[in-house]
Write a structure and sequence with these properties.
The chain is mainly alpha-helical. It is built from 3 helices and no strands.
Length: 96
Amino acid sequence: MSPLKRKKLNKIRLQLDRLDNSLIKIIRKRTNLVKKVLVLKEKKSEIVDKKRIRKILRDIKNKSLKNNIDPKITNRIWKNMILAYIDFEKRNFKNK
């Protein structure tokens, strides 16, 4: 890679790092909201709401298409995030 391209690459990576820092703050906020939701759930069976998951994924696909983002990317991100939070809720349900 040429020095000029290396410099451009490093600049873009710095922008990605800054964006990642912003995402971490958003994930912290989302986690705090999930904790509030968990407090309201009385049964472990209430953790997974398949109808809501389908709606979320459908909405994300539509928003992705409107914003010219490959919906396969956002679908995978949201599925993984949903699964991670389901796991989080299951691990923390008994600790209520």
